[in-house]
Amino acid sequence: MGVPKAALAPRVLVALCTLLALGAAETPPGWATLAFVFDVTGSMYDDLVQVMDGASRILERTRSRSTKPISNYALVPFHDPEVGPVTLTTDPQLFQQRLRELHVQGGGDCPEMSVGAIRVAVEISHPGSFVYVFSDARAKDYEQQEELLRLLQHKQSQVVFVLTGDCGDRSHPGYRVYERIAATSSGQIFHLDKQQVTEVLKWVEEAIQASKVHLLSTDHEDGGENTWQVPFDPSLKEVTISLSGPAPGIRVQDPAGKVLEKGRGLKELLSIPNSAMVVALEPYEPGTWLTRSSGRHSLRITGISNVNFQASFSTQPEFDAIQRGERPVQGLPISVLVNCSGLRPPGRLQEIELFNTSGHVLLSLPVQPLLNSSSGSSTQLWVGSPLWVPPGDFLLKVKGEDGQGHPLHRLSGVTYTSVVPGLPKVNISSNIQAYSREPQLISCSARSEIPFQLQLSRGRRKLGEEQLFRISGNISWLIPAVSEGDEGFYECTATSKVGVSRARAYLSVSEPPPRLITPGNITASPGQDVVMSCVVQGDVPYNLTWSWDGKVAQPGAGRARLLQNSSLEISHVQPGDGGLYECVAQSAHGTATASLWLFIQEAPWVKVDPSPQRFSRGQELRLNCTAGGHPQPQTTWRHWGWPLQQDERDAEGSLHIRSAVPEDAGNYSCYASSTLALSLLLSPPAAPHFPEPLGDLEVQVGDRVSLPCRVEGSPLPQVTWTRQDGKPVVGWHGPQDVSSASLDDQATYICEAQNEFGKIQAEVKLTVTGQAPEIALASPVVRVLPGQPVSLPCVILAGSPFPARRWLKDGHMVAPGGRYSMRADGSLHVEQASQGDAGTFTCEVTNALGSHRQDVTLVIHAPPSIEPGPVLVTATEGAAVTLQCNATGVPRPTVTWAKGTEPISASPHYQLDPDGTLLIPSSSPGDAGTYFCTATNAAGFSSREMQLSISTKPRISVNGSQTLEPVPILAVLGQETTLPCEAQGLPPPLVVWSREPQPLPLASTRFSILPSGSLHLAEPQVTDNGLYTCTATNAAGSASLSYSLHVQVPPSFSSPEPKAVSVLEGQPVQLSCECHGTPLPTLSWWKDGRAPCSSASSLPTWAHPAVCLLGLVSPGGNVVYMEKVQLLDQGTYTCECRNIAGSSSKEHHLKVHVPPEFIQGSGVTTNVSVSLQGSLTLTCEATGIPQPSVTWFWDGSPVTPSEHTQLLSGQSSGCCER
Q1: Which domain of life is it from (predicted)?
Q2: Which residues have C-beta within 8 Å of that of residue 1021, sequence separation ≥ 6?
Q3: 3-state DSSP call for residue 832?
Q4: What is the rounded distance in angstroms from the CA atom of residue 153 to the CA atom of residue 142?
Q5: What is the pLDDT of residue 843?
Q6: Which of 64, 149, 407, 578 has the fewest CB atoms within 10 Å around its CB?
Q7: Distances (CA, A) of 351 to 336, 372, 408, 1151
Q8: DSSP secondary structure string, 937-988?
């Protein structure tokens, strides 16, 4: 079962109090560092001479101030590719000495590794330090600027550039990085001539002061005139205003409106035409001072005051003193904590303002006291309202008032850059070795820009409690006694608002290896027997071996043997047996090693030069005494038994007599543990003589030459060397020693020895031989991909003496080590090539007879990189469209284009420029879509996506086609009608309607515009006839479509007609049909539902199934006329009126009447005889339409029914019975 281990976070109140203490002690007066970062290329010689001279004045001035601003000094020389050696000292004399020891080297290289050198200076300096950079080149390593900027924001140090050159391009990133460093640190850039460095150093004397506060910091690249109101409070002393830039100008006005002038209120500290101006003033009156500056420049205003502030940031309302942040986090609400020192109550802060580097306010927020000290304290904590920090760089300004109510403004000494938070970084060992039955601690740590929670787990089981940390933290889980069940994966999870990060570790469990008790060291005297033992703990079987000075000891050989308990015994030890011994215990589960030292205690011994020695008055003597033994003995000297003073001996124990006198003669003894006497006696004078003959010498060029000339005499003779040819002996370190022989040294040399008792000479002939160097021919260009190893060959074919070889890159020496290494064959090797390695390398071999150089150009195939550009491109239909794809890389990448997944090739529609630009001469809506530009070279490829949107001129179509003429459209009276206007275009066009040509009122209920843009007429009237125009407009243009509206009226009959017409057969008849409508309707006649036939007969043929009315209808079609009606003409006649608006019909029912008529002679007078009392039937049959009625008469009188007479029903007959 595990036990969680982690410290609880301190409570908020404790953290704030701690922060107060830390902030107050962070940059106390006198804790700053003065750092010089110096470019030691050959072109900087004049600068170095002036800096050496000015440094002593700067140091003297800073040390003479009552408040010492500087605690230590740093010197960082740099020369591509090296930085250093670095000097950091509290001794100003040593700082000056190191400065004087600098020597310039090489040519005027441009650029230089200046960013790395500045970073080193800031790293070793205290917070709030002064860093001055002297160079005449832009930065080569500008890509490393982010790390330096973060460090400057943390250290709050100021960097000032004194530039006597910039490689001629101030738009280059290598120069722009200087501007950013200066802006971030509230420093400046001074551009000077080589002779003007001294003037800047005089200003540096004044600028380095303790308790410096910042009041204003602005940069103006666009020029113009700027006026700033700067409140000066009573605590401010010695205000300094500095400008740098072309033709700087400054105007200062006090609160009363008085303009200060040079010599009258303004003290000029520095004035370099077209480069820099620095003035100082005493703020004799509190209040708002005006400064007006002009030109393209940077402006800094500082002062001396004990009232200042420091700011820190937190994403939490509670501030942790240990884990507070100097940089705000983007995307989260941030609280700003202000630690204000020197401001005593009732003085207070009121607000915090965020400024950009041009001096403009980005935002402001109120502050409130968070924790105030006692009334006597001069430090206060204030916190601002939470804010969302803006992107980019910004400065903080705190505003308030002092105890007397005077306005108080202070500006941060550095700019702040917001940090984009990333996922927490989790760190845990990937493999953990644990041993059975032993405790094991599993630890995990994490870091994050924002608060996070940390948790250890195994599988789904959490190990301990999840813990909250601010910036960094670690947690642990202790397993008291490991077992096999503990083996497996353990996971560490860090969770923040950005997301979750995980890391896993595998715990392996095995039996423990042997455990050794470390033995103690052994000291023995020569001849003793020594036993060395290693005690192994545990019951696991093991094998024990011994080694001595890295070699396996062979027990049983010679004086060494292995005892039964595996101890090593050495009999009769000797001084050579001393050294480091190791015992190695090995088992199936592992290996353990322990070591001990065997020291052989050797009796002291003393060795001195032979005696006696002779000397003369004033001669310098050295009596050598070498002592040995173990431990090393301490030597002492005695003269006639009396001890000599310590300062008469040197570090090696020899006795040094600088100027001998007769009293120095006598017996001298050198003492270690035993003594050995040395006698020193005066000797009689003797003339010089050579104890051995001088021989001739033959050497190779470059060898060290020493011409022996041993001479004796008393006093000791003076030896001089001359050349037989009379030439001077130049370049020799001593009278007979030269470090590197050259052909010019070949000559006959004369050694002359002389003292007061004689002079002698001897000749030495020196012969110098050699051969000039030669390099094997190699490829002039070497190409390599990034990250791959590469070797640049340099094979020496000839040269005697063997030539010295060195490599140069772009004219500057390449020092082996770091990125570059020298192979045995002389080739220069780079293990992992990068773009910074590209350039011209020169192998130079040199000996005394000459030199040979060979250039090789190293080309690094940099992967393509495409410059960012607009993601969305909008163009108008028909206009030319240019899609940029600016790609860089080595070799120059080729650029291809694709639309979607379809590649684009050159055509009249698409034009591909060599620089990668895609041109569409006349764009159309079909060109809209997603385009991909891909840059490819041998090192890789890069792609960029962009969206093309074509703004098309509106198009209005009718039934899928376009028309230019007004479109006729018909409407029916009272029936709703829609005039279509569906317009296409991008962006979607706006549609408006007009009517001949006034805008159409849309407020009425009769007209409305539908979402599609069409016009809806609810109830068209005839008065609505006319020309209607729909106009569609967008950014690309406009289009219109006109409609000619015609409202149609359905047919109707003007007057009612009779529905039934009766006529006698043979009589004429006329059927009329008057109807109206718009357009004029056409009339058709139908009889009994049948259409008219095609016969041209003017008479109807009623027997025909299709009755023909064509000859009966009037030319207008509205009348049917029949001259003699026949019975077949009887029927229903339908008049139909029809137009495009509709139809209407009306029926006429025609009845034809036929007069009565007797059938078959009925009705003709006939005489009938009948018997009396007989019956008689008289028949009377008649036809007619309608059916006729029959009436009988008898003698002229109507016959009425009676008992004798009756009318038979259904018959036209009667019967009379008498």
Answers
A1: Eukaryota
A2: 973, 974, 1047
A3: coil
A4: 17
A5: 93
A6: 64
A7: 11, 17, 11, 112
A8: ETTEEEEEEEEEEEEEEEEE-BTTB--SSPEEEEEETTS-EEE---EEEESP
Is the bond preceding 1079 in cis, omega lying within 30 degrees of 0? Answer: yes
Angle, helix 45-64 to helix 197-207, in steps of 10 degrees: 20
Neighbours of 959 (CB within 10 A): 7
Nearest to 975 by CA among 1014, 1022, 1020, 1008: 1020
CA dist., res. 712 & res. 1121, Å (int): 177
In the structure encoding, which two tokens stand for residue 630, read together?
A: 């173990």
Tell me the average pLDDT across 1104-1115: 56
> Is residue 1054 classed as helix, strand or coil in its secondary structure?
coil
HEC string of 488-517? EEEEEEEECCCCEEEEEEEEEEECCCCEEE
Tokens of 270: 């520095």
Sequence length of the chain is 1218
For 1163-1182, letters b (16+ CB in 10 Å) and e give eeeeeeeeeeeeeeebeeeb
492: amino acid identity, one letter: C
Higher-confidence residue of 311 and 167: namely 311
pLDDT tens digits along 632-658: 777 788 776 677 765 454 445 677 787
Residue linked to tokens 């393509």: 864
Task: Give the count of beta carbons closer than 10 Å to the beta carbon of residue 1094.
Answer: 8
> C-alpha angle 540/544/549, rounded to 5°?
145
- Taken in order 706, 708, 710, 711, the sign of the CA dihedral is negative
Structure-model confidence comparison of residues 961 and 104, the more confident one: 104
Q: Provide the terminal-to-terminal Cα distance of the chain, rounded to the nearest Å.
A: 153
In whole angstroms, how far apart are CA 359 and each of 287, 537, 542?
Answer: 20, 73, 76
Residue recorded with tokens 């935002």: 363
Encoded tokens for 958: 């009718």
Amino acid at 1139: N
Can you tell me the distance from the alpha carbon of 1208 to that of 543, in angstroms, rounded to the nearest whole number?
Answer: 162
Q: What residue type is assigned to position 186 of the chain?
A: S
Q: How many CB atoms lie within 10 A of CB 222?
A: 6
Measured CA to CA, the distance from residue 16 to residue 9 in angstroms comes to 13
Q: Under a CB-based contact definition with an 8 Å cutoff, are residues 51 and 59 in contact?
A: no
- Phi, psi angle pair for 1023, to nearest 5°: -70, -10
Residues 230-253 have pLDDT tens digits of 999 999 888 988 888 777 778 898
Residue 540 in contact with residue 465, Cβ under 8 Å?
no
Q: How far is the C-alpha of 244 from the C-alpha of 295, rounded, in Å?
A: 10
**pLDDT tens column, 762-781:** 888 888 888 888 887 778 88
What H or E segment, with its residue span, contains residue 17? helix 12-25
User: Residue 899's Cα: distance from chain center in Å?
Assistant: 28
Buried b (16+ CB within 10 A) or exposed e, 22-51: ebbeebeeebbbbbbbbbbbebbeebbebb
Q: Tell me how far apart the 2 most distant CA atoms of the chain are, in Å.
A: 235
Asked whether the beta carbons of 971 and 896 are under 8 A apart, the reply is: no
Exposure string over 418-440, b if 16+ CB within 10 A, otherwise e = bbebebbebebeeebebbeeeeb
AA letter at 583: C
Beta carbons within 8 Å of 548's beta carbon, 6+ residues apart: 579, 580, 581, 582
Write the secondary structure of 767-780 as one string of H (helix), E (strand) and C (coil): EEECEEEEECCCCC
Contact 207, 240 (CB under 8 A): yes
Average pLDDT over residues 377-400: 81
Contact at 8 Å (CB) between 213 and 301?
A: no
CB hemisphere CA count around 776 (13 angstroms) = 10
